[in-house]
Amino acid sequence: MSRTRSISQEILVHFASKIPEKLSSKWTRFVCVSDTHNKIDRDKYQVPNGDVFRKYLTSISLQKKFLILMIFNTVVHAGDMTGLGKVEQVRDTVNWIKNLPHKYKVIIAGNHDLTLDETFYEKNWNRFHYNKEDPKEAINIIKNAGNGVVYLNEESFTIPDKGIQIWGSPWTPEFYEWAFNGQRGQCLKEKWGQIPQTTHILMTHGPPYNILDKTHHSGENVGCEDLLERIKVIKPYVHIFGHIHEAYGVLEKTWESTDQDRKKTIFINASTTTIEYEPENAAVVFDYPPTHPL
Ligand code: 5GP
Ligand code: MN
Ligand code: MN
Ligand code: MN
Question: What ipTM did this prediction achieve?
Answer without folding.
Answer: 0.98
